Amino acid sequence: MATLCTGPFLVPNHTCNGNPVNFFFICFTNLSNRRLTATVKMDHVFTHPNQPQSPCIPLHPPASIRVEPNSAVMLSHSVFPPMPISNSNTLSNAPHILIVTVSGNVDKSRDLIQVCVTGGFSSDGGNSLSEAEPTMFFRHDDFIVVHHGDLPLPPHHPLKPDSSA
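and the corresponding structure tokens:
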């Protein structure tokens, strides 16, 4: 068991063909003969030149995903947070940065759940990806091992200093 993370990655405004990047997809693949589970957490980080620390908004709270033997599960999510940010210095035009963290029956080994992330333009509200953006593609091997062990999520957020150290 481990915790894997994409690390922070920039979401471009448009795909290579000019369509808006509006969804990202996370695929969990279980090629074993046993039922496996993982917990996924998605965070949206806003950057703003006048703020010393960027606000980090959970785009999707931790959710448990069960993957049956020899099958796959795909989640789709809007790139933009569901709630508007209300202050005089709106962050809507700021660059969007996402972080995807997965823990549970995942590791760099091939006998557990393999994870990949991709994003781009979806013309049908996130049911399928009409046009992929290559800079948003993270293969399983591209994930960073954040933690080995039994903790369901890292003890701290990847962008915040570890206060226990």
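(Above: one complete record from the training split.) The radius of gyration is 16 Å.
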